[in-house]
## 1
Amino acid sequence: KDVPLPQSKADQTEEKLDLDIWKSVMRLQVPGVEEEEEEKLGGEEGGGDCAAGGVTGQEEISPLEATRELVVMWRHAGKLVPETMTDEELGILAELQTKSSKKKYLKYLAVKEGHKKSHKQKQEKKKAERSERIQEDNRIRPGGLRGGGEEEGELRNTFLLQFWGRSLDKLLGWRSAQAMVFGQPLVFDMSYEQQMTRREVENTVSQLMEVEGWNRRAADPFHLHFCNLQPDGGYRRELVKRYGAEAWERLLVTSTERRHVDLFPRDDLVYLTADSPNVLRTFDNSKVYIVGSMVDRSIQSGLSLANAKRLKLNTARLPLDDFLQWETGAKNLTLDQMVRILLTLKERGRWEEALEHVPKRKHDGFYQEKPQQD
Amino acid sequence: MRLSDHRHAFFCRHETAHLTVYSSSILLLTMSSLLILKTRICLKYISPLFNPSTAGFTPLNNVISKLSVSSRLLCTKGGSRHAGNNRKEDRQREFNIRERLPFPKSVFAAGTAKRTAEYQKKRAEEEPDFPRKNKRVEPPDHPLTASEWKSLKLTSPNPDRFDVRMISSMLADGTDINVAKSLLAYVAMDTGTLSYELLLRYLTLCVGSGHHSEVFDMYDIMRSRFRTLDTGASSLFIKGFSRTERWKEALTILENIKRAITPSPRNYGDTIAGAVLHGDGDTAWALYAELMEKGLIPNQETWQALFQCGLSHQGHEDGLQAILLHMRDNQIYPEETLAKDIKAWFDSLPEQKWIGSWSTVDPRGVCRSCQAELESIQLSREEYTQLKDRVMGDVIQGRDVFNKTTPEELESFKNFVKRKPAFDVVIDGLNVANIGIKGNQSQTVDSNEVVETSSRMINGNRMHLSSFSSVIAKGLNTYVNKLLEVVSELERQGLVILVLGRKHMQRPSRSWDRHDMSLVQQKAHCFFTDNISEDDPFLLYATLHSGNHCNFVSRDLMRDHKACLPDGATRRLFFKWQRGHQLVLSSYTPGKRVRFQRILSYDTIVQTNGGSWHIPYDENGAERCTYEVPQKWLCLTNAK
């Protein structure tokens, strides 16, 4: 039942109010909006073969095609979807079964795209600023060499050449090499690949790269071991992809497919896991600590504890509750936070300093006095 | 208090000691006015006739009110004399698990969780809610001209996406459609086109307010303008079309959705409702079959539509019966509106005289309306075996036996269970021991005892202050007392008991008194798991292994273990078994007879025996948790 239009007061005004004018405006327009969109999304057909216009009379189309259309329309409807998608991404999307998983994946891609875009914009802005500065310099001193401290072609009196990043890399490389020979081992257990999704493996690899970076920059680095790293596994593939094959080969860590229990005496090993009943009181320089390299977005509690139980290893957890007024969030920390805590402990041995690396959002500050030792 | 004879002497000593400690601790608490104890979450029984006026009643008041004047001078807080509920108890009566208790509800009764939560909330300090800042635009109440819209847009604090935000707030307020039209007209004239987003929101407004001709116009426009529609628009068109004579077009739109994704149950529901509305029962049923085939879960409204369809057209009786059986198989309960439609349909059946009535079921499992006995909660032999295997396979072992236990422990447990006779009751030691540490249940300690011990305490006689504090600590935390009381109570009934615990319970400590623990071990069989193992799965298995007569004592709702089971059917089986075999301590008061909440003897599920149907349903407005079952029934009998 249609509601008759009421004679509104606006009708009597000098500006005639036609409520349905937008319909005629829309009807006059020709379809042709999505063609450009289709081009954007890429694809083997190029999106130009839409001879069959309209919804009816469509011949059967491939699921990939249907997925592409779905993304275009969701984009129109203002949902969070990426502007461009590769064929590979479209394939992954088409394989996802549920609507919610599709939405989730699209949102992830859209956010990623947003980051990329803003990064690009910043770069361009910087570039523009730099070129402006150069022009400015050239206006002041035409033909003058740029660079800090050059004054009318005169050389500065300095006892050092500029300290380039390369020199630092060399220094840190020596340190890491030294750690490879004399350093205390720190094991990352890579046996959790089966329990992780592809996304989680990617996140773990990102964290491992940070671990390696933090360790390299430390005054007294650990000798990192990546144990249980399967040579044909997704883990290794992702690592090689992220580091680049050459850099991965030159990386100053020990990566092996052997187990940590085969490399070290069992009594020296301590498996660090948040589920452990024992609290780590002091950092022991003679022990080999194991960190399970795993990201579990779907909460799977007790996996690393089960692993440690299976191999009859000692376990320990960080004394988070003794030092911090824990507020929110899980007590499992990321791998890079873990390695920073361990490095700080190794160098200084003070828990308060080490636990500075625990994210501030998770706790409400340190306890004032030292906790009671039971 | 009656005690079993051979423990009599010990018990007297034990009781008095306990009371001493208890009363003195209360005194100490009141003196230091440490009355604000954090309430622990416990499934305290709250009567359905719960009177809010007594909600503020604290157990301390009750005790204090019974103290003599001399000792009350010591308290900073006076107690009311009339507090407390004086329920008479027949202390001579032998307690029996199966006996009817004064507590009519179990933890599995619908609404218990909600009441408990409300009760907890009332006791907790209420934090003021900060009103969220409202940053939305206010829609006008009459159509505006283009210039008016323009000025409104310019004055708004955030001009970008003004049109979309404006129409969204119109949606929220349910503004008249003409106002939205005037906005669309302004935007169309201003920019020469309308965004899909804007049209989509306008369409939502049209469908919501039932402007069918407008929906048709929108359909033509959007179809000509865009090659395909997104899922949201398609769903809206389906909903809009199925209410009109063009309902058949909704089927075409449904087909188009299918190309990209599986349509939602609501899409199907709308088309089915459309078919039913226009008297096409066959199409409705075909769609329903398709929906079921896709493994979707139909909405209650869909079933309602089908029952209403059966009301106006004969036939499809088998289909409707199949729906009821589907509810039975999947442990789905109809809501009250659907229950009414079901009743109406039964009433309308010709050549059969169905008499429907709204009923409840008495605790013995008899329908109060037709006196028929309902299905028993006991599992059949095959179901039982299946559940036992699943609990062993999925809950205890799972994908990795080390997750919850170790292979050695599992092996020793299996041998232990094999060696022992079948148990009658299995106790979750730690769970029982942890009940009501703070003693926030109403205390009815013998007042004379309290007065006597407290006065003795004040005189400093036979008690040093230094030792006193440690005794208090023990009195507050002595877990094993509760366990011992529960075990003794069950032993008195001549039951074979198994107590499951963890190894740390065997180490003598403040809360695990060695003497009491050894008493527990005398009265019951015990199995202690490692401290880092899970004890609940063992409890479940031991109970299942002992057979159908065996019950278990725990307040744990076992939801995490239920979640380990692979499929819905097994989970429902587990829940049924749990309802029939779990004993929940209704309230714990030190020194008083241990009581359990009654186990239901009947199963709450849609059921028939040919001549009658019994259908449990959810009341309107009542909230029910997943681990609760409805209390109301629709009883249908066939009086031939």
## 2
Amino acid sequence: MRPSVARLLNILVPVKRAVDYAVKIRVNAQQTGVDLNVKHSMNPFDEIAVEEAIRIRERLKETVKSIKVVTIGPPKSLDTLRTALAMGADSAIHVEIPESAPSPEPLGVAKALRAIIDRQKEAGGVDLVILGKQAIDDDSGQTGQMLAGLLGWGQATYASKVDIDAEGKVATVLREIDGGSEELKCRLPLIITTDLRLNEPRYASLPNIMKAKKKPVEKLKAEDLGVDLTPRLETVKVAEPPKRVGGGKVESVDELVTKLKEAGFTAV
Amino acid sequence: MLRLGAVRRVSRPLVRAYATPASPHALVLLEHRAGVLDSGSLSALTAATHLGGQVTGLIISGPDGGSVVAKAKKLKGLTGLLHSTSELYSAPVPETVSPLLTALLGNTPYTHVVSATTSFAKSLLPRVAAQLDVPAVSDITSLEHDAASNSTTFTRPIYAGNAIATVKASSSIPVKFFTVRGTSFTAAPSDDNTSVDVQEVDPVAVSDSPTEHVKTSLTKSDRPDLGVASRVISGGRPLKNAETFQATLYPLADVLGAAVGASRAAVDAGYADNSLQVGQTGKVVAPELYMAFGISGAIQHLAGMKDSKLIVAVNKDPDAPIFQVADVGLVADLYEVIPQLVEKLKQ
């Protein structure tokens, strides 16, 4: 009997460097954006994406040929790539943009990712792209869907469970939807975006952090990919949201009930 | 094939004076489930009317969509209604619906594509926008259209609602896609005296969709829907387990006729279903009354509820950040407070 032909999967994981989720952000004085001289880290949803790629390899072993991470961002975004490499990705691509350049929009990022996927054709192509469902800075939640649209690939957004059948090149994905969940059967190549519940990302161990320093990082510029990352929407202003002032505390349940009744909230 | 000719005839003026910008014409995706129009879509319709032009609704449905169409015809603010029905749309996925939208938008005068910020629309709209090579604006809270320059300015929360960005989509973006935060606009009412004409649009066949819907599991609940409830009772980590969560919060929710929500901690620990999560990564609510029990008030949670009218917080920790936004705070053990509240509210 002939051994079955190994299907080799190549996984691409785009990641973003963003202001750390725990930082209380401040709008700058010029009202053009937020103060970025604060702690940054990998977008939490992207950590989940990296983790999922690694878990898929842990399940499918050699069937996963490569896990490549990519970021589009200023020089410091390299740290984010190193974090992903330390978690277990094999190699990275850094599409570097100047520190002063405005943050690219999802459509620009999706186009850059499409160009990167095109360039991977010689290396066996890309079978699976796993992205976070949204970046916690711009909260757009569009890039994965846009990339799927540009490529004409299937998409499974807000994934909470992913099961890959490498042999059949299909994935079964459970996704979070309003009011519950939904199961999809998707043909590869596929775009997946991660929900919080997909997994619990691992911490990189010190030896892995050291090893990650030796893993290859390819540097590219937007021009190399032939994409224009200039935003098409104009950010007119960034402002503080209206301040909400706490109304103080009450001492007892009775007072609380009185306040509720005063405001018109009674039993129905 | 789409009957694009017919669509065009109704919506485009026959003669247009030179250099007069096109008046806005929004296409609003009207979502529905089990014969009921999604309330978020009704808010999206209201937002679309703020553009100041024509507003065409779009209903896609399986073969049983007739009752929803009948309801949608009466919606105030609509100037037209398109209906496309197919087995494909009974359990729609973006891959099967996006060809219909691209075909509709390819040769018609729509200037805006509008939807609620629902999980379906969030999956669909960016896909279509990218195929038309235009950006999209997510989860807007206000908008203003300038007909003279054909530009639309939106506000939307960024950084989990800790900043509000004002973004402008200029005339260089021919079709402006945006999703609407439901809690920022009132729902468009129905009017029995109005009835717009319904135009049937042929579905676009997709023979080889890369994704296939297998099944949907919805969380059953007799309580009001969390996204639109006027009162929400929410619980956090101290609720211990799913049984305690229900036994503790549900009696109070029942007394107040409230929906039940949860913090991420409570959801992650399995006390409550995912669909009940309030916050940046869950639902954004803005009820008349939001009561938070045992919720510390992390940035991500506040992002989902700080536009509520009256916020009540009960927490043992006097320094919990939730007290900074609460209108009424009580430092106490929720297990002692809730039974008393139930009793006293009943009186």
## 3
Amino acid sequence: MVSGPYMFLRTRVDKVNAELVTLTYGTIVAQLCTDYDYDYTQVNQQLDKMGYNIGMRLIEDFLAKSNTGRCGNFRDTAEMISKVGFKIFLNITPTVTNWTADNKQFSLLFDENPLADFVELPDDGRAQDELWFSNILCGVLRGALEMVQMSIEARFVSDMLRGNDVTEMRVTLIRYIEDEMPPDDE
Amino acid sequence: MVVYSFYIFDRHAECIYKRQWLPPAISTTGKTSRPSSQTYVNGGPHSRSVLSAEDDAKLIFGTVFSLRNMVRKLGGEDDSFLSYRTSQYRLHYYETPTNTKFVMLTDTKSGSMRLALQQIYVNCYVEYVVKNPLSPVEHPGGIGVNNELFEASLEQFVVGSILHAE
């Protein structure tokens, strides 16, 4: 039996003011728009790349906090993402729906999106059709799942900020990544 | 109990951290079985063939990789390799879903180290390596793993907790 200072249980997730997160993210998006001269395609790509880098680290924190084992299939993965992952980090539970028959595609429907509180897209004739404001979430998902051997594609297909009825992210499993073997020597 | 050595392997089958608590000359890693008349008390370079630290790590990785795959073949995808014991040492294994592998070699008297290895992952590796933005996400050659906070927390954990257990 192991005893000592490291046996404390990690049941507490530190709280941070939600508006600080929202405003920080908003500042990042606004700065990217300025930096890329309002080329919203570029902004979307940068948000995805930033999210990918975040996801590769966040998955370890998720595994450490949730004590989750390996997911057996993509349906279990979707439930874990929705009910545990988003719950831990954003305190929301998006709905998993719209599975394809081959169980390789599903949608996440966001009734709430803390990143987009207080946000109204600019009326410049292009943002409504080109900017995916919360695109960082797609990158986070792609980076995190790659670390647990799933190559996926994630993209928004509708967004309430654009005037759509729902905010929907479509997630597609491309392939499972095989274990790497050590190089042969001797 | 005694901890002999500790290794971390990443998802690319590379050793990204290694730590020994006894001199290599009397480490039991890689020791082949000998007649009982052989005396081990004096240790020394003749107690085992001298492998480099890199070869030790490769040998250990190959062993646990094969055992882990064999366990899944025999027991199903949900089965896990936990540990093996020889007459001289016991090897403990913990693998995360991100394919980071934690291996610890101890004396034969130690019990299960699964919780200890998980604690090392949760409280030392994730806190001081993964969450350090100046440590890269990948660690070729061990870059970013042997930072001071990680090593200090690992040392404190091993010396402060494990060595006083049982």
